[in-house]
Design goal:
alpha+beta, 3-stranded antiparallel beta sheet
């Protein structure tokens, strides 16, 4: 089962989403780890140094609300949850890659 939340609640614009995610170190760290293949909450908690369970869950929900992540709940005992990048999240990730490349250019050799 895939849980999807309404994308861009309140009619937020792309710039607002970018500011909301890029302006938050935890959101970026979580997104980077998921893009690198870490999909389960417990793994994410261990992979993102210093993040608390509460903050991690808040950031995961925020990234879902923006349509960047989707939550998959598997009907198993015990329950298993995974987070995956959406198609929009892939496009968003490409923007982040371009920003990182621009940062490297500004820093120089």
């Amino acid at each position: 089962m895939i849980e999807r939340q309404k994308r861009n609640p309140g009619g937020s614009e792309a710039i607002g989403v970018i500011e909301d995610v890029v302006g938050c170190k935890w959101s970026l760290a979580v997104l980077m780890r998921i893009r690198a293949g870490v999909h389960r909450p417990g793994e994410l908690e261990r992979a993102v140094a210093g993040v608390s369970k509460k903050v991690l869950n808040e950031r995961l929900r925020k990234l879902q609300r923006h349509g960047i992540l989707e939550k998959r709940v598997f009907a198993e005992v015990p329950p298993r949850v995974e987070y995956r990048i959406t198609a929009l999240g892939e496009r968003f990730g490409a923007l982040l890659d371009q920003l990182a490349a621009l940062q490297r250019e500004w820093q120089g050799p």
